[in-house]
Every structure is written in C-alpha cells, then in structure tokens.
Write a structure and sequence with these properties.
Number of helices: 6
Number of domains: 2
Distance between the termini: 28 Å
Order of helices and strands: HHHEEHHH
Strand content: under 5%
CATH topology of the largest domain: Arc Repressor Mutant, subunit A
CATH superfamily of the largest domain: Winged helix-like DNA-binding domain superfamily/Winged helix DNA-binding domain
Strand order of the largest sheet: 1-2
Helix content: 55-70%
CATH architecture of the largest domain: Orthogonal Bundle
Number of strands: 2
Structural class: mainly alpha
Shape: elongated
Length: 130
Amino acid sequence: MSLHESGEDYLETIYLLTSRMPFVRSVDIANELGYTKASVSRAMRILREEGFVTVAEDGEVKLTKSGKKRAISVYERHTLITDFFNEYLGVNPVTAEKDACRIEHVISEETYLRLRTYMTEKGYQPKELK
C-alpha cells in the first residue's frame, strides 16, 4: 500500500504515543503533532481505509499489524538517521532531528541498509522504545 509522508508521520506518532500512554485518541495525536482535530480525523479515516489503524467507538486509536510494522520501520529510520547526523557528523540535535524527519521518507532502501550496516559496524546500538 502506498503511504505518503504525512501518513507515515501519523503512524510513527501513534506508535510513540502508544509506548507512553495506555489509551491513544485522536486528540492526543492532534496535540502531539500540533494539528487540528479535523485534520487528524481525516487522516484517521484514510489510515483506517488503508488498513493501518482501527478506531474504536470509544475513540481509541490502535495500529493494526501492518500499521505497527510500518510505524516501527519509519521510527527506526528516523532514529538511525538522527543519530548518524548528531553522533557521527556532529550536527546539532535540533537540526539533526528536523533533517532526519524529512529524509526518513525519501531515503532509498539500499542507502538506508548501507547506512545501518555502516553504523552497526562502528558499534551503533539502536534505541528501543520502552
């Protein structure tokens, strides 16, 4: 399934919120991203139609198996690229974060895998969510 950058950002945000909160609702996503409730509602409809999330009658948003897989992939790319820029290149953490957020969506699989291999060979340990 094709998913645009904003959809990937939503999935990553839901994944991160789920690690911090027992119950994620659209309002939590809106607050985290600084988006309107209407924008989040529209995005949840699209993500639900594409099979990435479920939204219960009580408003709880959950990632489906494919949604979680995609969210983890985006999160891993994001953290690896951020860490590479910051820890290996010395880029200021704020800039590294902003740049990684854009690059994570467009980097090729080949380049990402080579970067991950390079960093692993240099002793990089990926961060895990608690």
